[in-house]
Structures are given as C-alpha cells and as structure tokens.
C-alpha cells in the first residue's frame, strides 16, 4: 500500500506541490494517515489547460487505441487490488471485504468502457429526396470536470473517468478531501497504463467552493459531472448555466424498501441487510424507509433483529468486521440526532443504542416511524433501519413516491402481477425486485426528480460524454 500513497495533486502526468497542506484522516482511529498539499487557483487552471491539450490529442485517436489503454488500466487496477482495498479501508473505513468488492466493481467500469469505446455508432438516415445523403456520428464533448464523494472512492471515479476516456474526453477530477488517496492511486495507475498526459488530472483541496467555481465557470470545460447531495448539485447546476455546460448529476436519495406479505421473508431480510447496512448505511441507494405489510410485521422484526444483533462493528481491517466507522464526527452526530428526534416523536428502538466511541455507530432498528419524524424525510447515511407498517399496495406506493427524490427503490414480492404493477408505479430511476444490491457496470445508474440528471454505467454512460453531429450532403 505505501507505494500507492501520494501527497500532491496530479496534473499533466506529474505531481503538483503547493505549500498549503491538509490532513487525510483515518475515520477508524481519527489519526492522520498523511498530509497532502492543497491545490491553489493556479493549479486548477493549469489542470484545465493540461486537460485541453490532452483533449486535442485524444480526440484524434481511434477507439481501438483508447480501448487498449483502458484495458491496461483495468489490468493494473486488478493487479493492485489488495493494496487499493487496504488503502480504501484506511481512508474511508469500510470493511476490507467490502473494499475488495468495490475494487472489483470499480474496475468493472473500466473494463466495460474499454469494450464500449469500440461501440459508439452513428446512423445512416433515410433521405427525403434523391439529392441528399443524411448521416450522423458522435464526437467527444471535450474537457470534463467532475467532483466525487467519499463513500465509494474508487467506483465513483472509474465510472466517470472510464467512459470519458473511452469517448475521447480528458478529465479534471476533484475527489472528496476525506478520501483523495484512492483517486491519486487510480490516476497514477492510469498514467502507467498509457493515458495521454493531462487526460486524467486530480486536484486535492479542502476548498471545494474555490475549485468548483473555477471548473464550472471555465469556458474550456464543456461537461461537468457530480455525485453528492441534492443541495450542492443545485448550486453546481446554477454555476454551470453561465457557460451552458452539459451536466450529469447523481444526487440524493430516500430509497423505499417494500416487503409484501407474499414475499420470501428470508430472501427479503438478506436483501434488506445488504441494502441498508452495506458501508455502514453510507450509500445513496441505501434502504431508507422500510415498509412492511402489517400482517407480517412481527415475523419481519423478529428475523431482522437477529440479523442486526449479529453485526460486528469495528476496524475494517479485521476480517470479522461487518460495519466500520462513519466517515467523520459530524456524520455520527447527524445519525444520533435523527434517532433522538424519532424517539421523541414516538419511535421505539430495537438494539443496543450505547455509544461505541469515536466515529462508530451501533446498528439499530426503529419501529413506529412516521412521516412526522425527520428520519422519514432525510437520508440517514448510517446503520439505522426505519420500519413503517402498511396495509394495502396503493397505500405503500403513495408513501414510497411522496418524496422529492427518485434514485433507487426495492420491493419483495412473489406475485408476478404485483411485480409488474409496482415496478411501473414506483417513481424511481432504478428498482430492485427481490434483490437488495442492484448496481452493475453494464446497467444505467441514475435517478429522476431531485435525484439527478443523466446515467452512469451501461451503454448510456458513454453517451454522456459524446455529442451527436448531423451531416447533410447534397449529391
């Protein structure tokens, strides 16, 4: 792992040092892992210029060449899987087994877009007369800037950078200041794989406002992609409007998880454990509101309580750890405030709610949750399962859809007619049916309503970095 830890931003294939520094801390110990330099305005502009120079060269390359470079990047990531997973656990806190799974998942985007690079097709359009030939083809959009979050510090990067490079675009990335080390390691490996110099730049900074303003207001940057909160996404969209940038936004969610009375309860509980407690609940697609049909409520609570009680909280490096720490103290404080508000308003707790110290939060089940409680409306981003009973299908669909978000939803049912009805009625960009882990590099990831714009993954993810050009030729 030490050979993949770097201290400076990465610009034009070289490390860029500044005198201002900040600490990257281990959320498990709350001790510093390393001190890194904080990018300045000149560095941000240098990265944009380097990306523009790389784009001029990159857009002239053929798809097969870009595909081969991406495959080499994929191979290098997989060769360093162990070191990358350990680095991720160190700076993000998730259990090592989950970190290893994320390396596989993140590498999957690189491999998928290495293949998709060769499948960017145009069209021959039937002409309306004998004197013209009509065609269209796709070209790379240009320099791309992106901001990624801390909860998936490898996958959130590769699913943006890989399709951009496959399309022929260069990239300027600002990773979360809490987890910049994985992004630097990926950029280093991409450079080793043969990325065009300046095609993948990484900017380290605690001053997200400064970096974001320069990237969004730059005329050179033609596409902006962001994964994070809806509030920040709205601000970035406003800033991007001044230069009419293409944008893709993967924003907040408030995922419903519905268990109907005809469901296989053992499968439903297994799916719920993954959808709720993976990464200590710190995922945008985490099950947030768990709706259980009243006739099976007692059975579900009994089975769920056993599973939750068996979860081990601790250092992610330990093989038997199921839940690591939350990312920083304020994250834990938010979860505890949401739990306290729910209890004050009538919710009951199943589980040991003792303070585990540090950034660790005990996994809990809340029963009797209602729409009067803050936890019903906000992303929890912690290992707390909120249980809400319902009686009828129409009732639960109304509750599930009655939020401004529409990222992911889940439901368990064995009734094929109900499966079709519910999957079509849920106002979400992604739906898991009898499955709690739905993310896949070959499928489009994204939401509707205030959960975002655009899609990442699948063949749709490549189109986010391409412009279509129509050609009309008179003959």
Automatic annotation (TrEMBL):
EC number, as in UniProt: 1.2.1.-
GO MF term (any one): oxidoreductase activity
Family membership: Belongs to the aldehyde dehydrogenase family.
The entry's keywords: Oxidoreductase
Signal sequence coordinates: none
Taxonomic lineage of the native organism: Bacteria, Pseudomonadati, Pseudomonadota, Gammaproteobacteria, Alteromonadales
PROSITE patterns according to UniProt: ALDEHYDE_DEHYDR_CYS, ALDEHYDE_DEHYDR_GLU
Pfam annotation, one family: Aldedh
Domain spans labelled Aldehyde dehydrogenase: 20-471
Species this chain originates from: Pseudoalteromonas haloplanktis (Alteromonas haloplanktis)
Protein name as it appears in the record: NAD-dependent succinate-semialdehyde dehydrogenase
Active site residues per record: 250
Gene3D superfamilies in the cross-refs: Aldehyde Dehydrogenase, Chain A, domain 1 (3.40.605.10), Aldehyde Dehydrogenase, Chain A, domain 2 (3.40.309.10)
């Amino acid at each position: 792992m030490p050979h993949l830890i770097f201290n400076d931003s990465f610009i034009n294939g070289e490390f860029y040092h500044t005198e201002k520094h900040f600490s990257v801390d281990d959320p498990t110990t709350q001790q510093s892992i390393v001190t890194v330099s904080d990018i300045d305005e000149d560095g941000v502009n240098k990265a944009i210029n380097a990306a523009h120079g790389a784009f001029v060269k990159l857009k002239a390359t053929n798809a097969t060449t870009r595909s081969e470079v991406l495959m080499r990047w994929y191979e290098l990531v997989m060769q360093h899987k162990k070191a990358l997973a350990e680095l991720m656990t160190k700076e993000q806190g998730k259990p090592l087994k989950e970190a290893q799974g994320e390396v596989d998942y993140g590498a999957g985007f690189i491999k998928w877009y290495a293949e998709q690079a060769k499948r960017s097709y145009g069209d021959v359009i039937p002409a309306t007369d004998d004197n013209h030939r009509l065609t269209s083809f796709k070209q790379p959009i240009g320099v791309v800037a992106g901001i990624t979050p801390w909860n998936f510090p490898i996958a959130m990067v590769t699913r943006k950078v890989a399709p951009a490079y496959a399309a022929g675009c260069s990239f300027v990335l600002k990773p979360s200041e809490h987890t910049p080390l994985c992004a630097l390691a990926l950029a280093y490996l991409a450079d080793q794989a043969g990325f065009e110099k300046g095609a993948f730049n990484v900017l380290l900074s605690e001053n997200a406002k400064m970096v974001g303003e320069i990237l969004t207001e730059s005329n050179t940057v033609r596409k902006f992609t962001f994964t994070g909160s809806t509030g920040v996404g709205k601000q970035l969209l406003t800033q991007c409007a001044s230069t009419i940038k293409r944008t893709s936004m993967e924003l907040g969610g408030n995922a419903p998880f519905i268990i109907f009375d005809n469901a296989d309860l053992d499968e439903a509980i297994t799916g719920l454990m993954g959808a709720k407690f993976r990464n200590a609940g710190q995922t945008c697609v985490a099950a947030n509101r768990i709706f259980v049909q009243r006739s099976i409520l007692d059975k579900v609570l009994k089975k769920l309580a056993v599973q939750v009680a068996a979860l081990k909280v601790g250092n992610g490096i330990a093989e038997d750890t199921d839940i690591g720490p939350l990312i920083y103290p304020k994250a834990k404080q938010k979860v505890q405030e949401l739990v306290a508000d729910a209890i004050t308003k009538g919710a009951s707790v199943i589980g040991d709610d003792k303070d585990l110290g540090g950034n660790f939060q005990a996994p809990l089940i809340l029963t009797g949750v209602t729409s009067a409680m803050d936890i019903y409306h906000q992303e929890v981003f912690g290992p707390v399962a909120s249980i809400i009973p319902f009686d009828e299908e129409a009732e639960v669909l109304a509750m599930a859809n009655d939020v401004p978000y529409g990222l992911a939803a889940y439901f368990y049912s064995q009734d094929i007619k109900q499966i079709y009805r519910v999957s079509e009625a849920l106002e979400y960009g992604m739906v898991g049916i009898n499955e709690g882990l739905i993310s896949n590099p070959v499928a489009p990831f994204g939401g509707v309503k205030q959960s975002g714009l655009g899609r990442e993954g699948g063949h749709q993810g490549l189109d986010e970095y391409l412009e279509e050009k129509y050609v009309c030729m008179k003959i």
